Amino acid sequence: MTELAITWSVLLSQVMLGLAMACALYRIARGPRAQDRILALDTLYINAMLMLLSFGIRSANTIYFETALIIALIGFVSSIAFAKFLMRGEVIE
């Protein structure tokens, strides 16, 4: 019974993460300002990372966890670069 509950809960979390990713894509496409689009992009990479983690839990494969770690690192660096670009107009000083 517990294995079935875990399977259904992971499936439900994947559906909810898919909906969250769709909302973030909508905000990227229709965001009124650049700051809204960058926050939506930040949300999108976090949701993608969590989706990969849920795929890793479901398939019991460690490659998904390593890929999620790489996405987290690249997403963090890109968020900092975008924020710096919006504040100063240049990324490299």
Automatic annotation (TrEMBL):
Membrane topology summary: Multi-pass membrane protein
Sequence intervals crossing the membrane: 6-26, 38-57, 63-87
One of the record's GO molecular function terms: sodium:proton antiporter activity
Subcellular location: Cell membrane
Manganese in keyword set: no
A Gene Ontology cellular-component term: plasma membrane
Lineage: superkingdom: Bacteria
Principal subcellular localisation of the protein: membrane
Keywords for the protein's UniProt record, in alphabetical order: Antiport, Cell membrane, Ion transport, Membrane, Transmembrane, Transmembrane helix, Transport
NCBIfam families for the chain: PRK06161.1
Family statement: Belongs to the CPA3 antiporters (TC 2.A.63) subunit F family.
Name of this protein: K+/H+ antiporter subunit F
